[in-house]
Specification:
435 residues, alpha+beta, 4 domains, 12 helices, elongated
Length: 435
């Protein structure tokens, strides 16, 4: 029996590796184009971009590995069934249960490893990715500057660049509007300029050449000053989304379970203190309720992320229960059909997971149930499907409802759209008793 179990597990290795590679590559495509832009048009070196890829990869593997488990299970059992090996084993007294349970144990073992991976490796890589993006932003602050767009990322300033070389940072026809109290204080116009950094976090230094400064005094609105310059240095505070997120504390995606539980305890103490505070007026009571809602939502977000770290890994075992009997059922569809079905089924699981996350964050569902409900439904469906497959009481026919062409409404519409001569020929060729 050990030889048979090793044989069944070996059948999963090839499809599993193929599915991990394919799914990860597909999900990386969108990020690849963005990072290639850093190399081609922004001048970031290849090694730095490769480092970004390495930090971004673990978060993708956390999603693609469970899907690959289902693909491997479905394709492996589909191959065994299509070659009639399962039929031969049944005739020898080996039931489908005995073939599935070693794969299920392997799925549980992988779930434990995935939990450690998601809890330890993924948060650290996400944090390093954020830090490296901040470092790139500080070395090349001109990454946020675009030509022919009014840039409002700098508090108190609006910047307009007519022409800009993305590789060198050289600018042409630069206009800077300095605002104060919602009013225009001064305008700087320069024929050319360039971006320089003083290695100060959150600061962009512009060097402008051959320009003029026009200023109206706030004390004396009738006073107008015009100043020509050969070179002018302007310091702008860099307040892009990149720097704001990098300055922020660790988010829930960069924290381990231990760190998030500590944050949950602090938030629970804050909620208790806020609830214990007395209110004298209606305004104070309303403000207190708003504060409690904010604290409770933040606590729910942490709890949802904690339970998600366990729900996603243990989906490996639940997907094995679905993939194994489905591989037996759709054995005639080939590897392509099995892979397509796995992707569609996992997308459904992922949609349920996202919906549960939204409901859990808003307090519409308990965080644990919001994250674990997809696993519970998958396990129940997989157990039912496995039982039916063992008894030989289920076939691919139960999935025919997915073919919209079989739906009565669609069939009537398609029949009406057929040409008149085709309907007449069909009527003439039909047996006389059926007319």
């Amino acid at each position: 029996m050990k030889i048979l179990h090793r044989y069944v597990l070996a059948e999963h290795v090839g499809p599993f590796v193929f599915a991990v590679f394919t799914a990860t590559f597909v999900l990386l495509l969108a990020r690849i184009f963005k990072m290639m832009e850093l190399i081609i048009s922004k001048g970031v070196d290849v090694l730095t971009v490769g480092e970004l890829f390495s930090y971004f990869l673990p978060s993708l593997l956390a999603m693609t590995i469970p899907m690959a488990v289902m693909v491997a299970s479905l394709m492996a059992f589909g191959r065994l069934s299509s070659d009639n090996e399962i039929t031969a084993l049944k005739s020898a007294g080996v039931s489908l249960y005995r073939l599935v349970w070693p794969v299920l144990i392997a799925g549980l073992a992988m779930a434990v490893g995935m939990y450690l991976f998601i809890d330890r490796v993924v948060p650290a890589s996400n944090l390093r990715f954020k830090d490296l993006m901040l470092s790139i932003g500080m070395k090349r602050p001109d990454l946020e500057l675009k030509e022919r767009v009014f840039i409002q990322d700098f508090p108190g300033y609006e910047l307009y660049i007519e022409k800009m070389d993305d590789r060198t940072g050289e600018m042409r026809n630069v206009t800077i509007f300095q605002m104060e109290g919602g009013r225009l204080k001064s305008t700087i116009v320069a024929d050319r300029g360039r971006v320089a950094s003083r290695n100060v976090r959150g600061l962009v230094v512009l060097e402008l050449y051959d320009g003029e400064m026009h200023e109206v005094s706030s004390d004396a609105p009738d006073t107008y000053r015009r100043l020509r310059f050969d070179k002018q240095v302007v310091n702008l505070e860099f307040e892009s989304e990149l720097v704001r997120t990098a300055h922020a504390a660790k988010g829930d995606r960069e924290m381990t379970t231990t760190e998030m539980r500590a944050a949950v305890n602090k938030l629970a103490e804050g909620i208790a203190m806020t609830r214990a505070e007395g209110t004298a007026t209606f305004v104070e009571e309303k403000y207190q309720l708003q504060q409690m809602e904010l604290l409770e939502r933040r606590r729910n977000e942490y709890l949802v992320e904690i339970y998600k770290k366990t729900a996603i890994p243990f989906a490996c075992a639940a997907l094995v229960l679905v993939g194994a009997p489905m591989g037996v059922i759709i054995r005639r569809g080939g590897k392509g059909a099995g892979f397509s079905f796995s992707i569609g089924f996992f997308l459904l699981y992922y949609i349920m997971l996202l919906a549960g996350e939204a409901f859990g964050d808003r307090g519409m569902m308990p965080p644990f149930l919001a994250m674990w409900l997809p696993n519970i439904l998958l396990t129940a469906f997989g157990a039912w499907l496995l039982t039916r497959a063992v008894r030989g009481m289920v076939s691919f026919a139960f999935l025919r409802f997915l073919d919209v062409r079989r739906w009565p409404v669609v069939r009537r519409v398609l029949k009406k759209r057929r040409p008149r001569w085709a309907r007449e020929d069909e009527a003439r060729s039909a047996p006389e008793g059926s007319r």
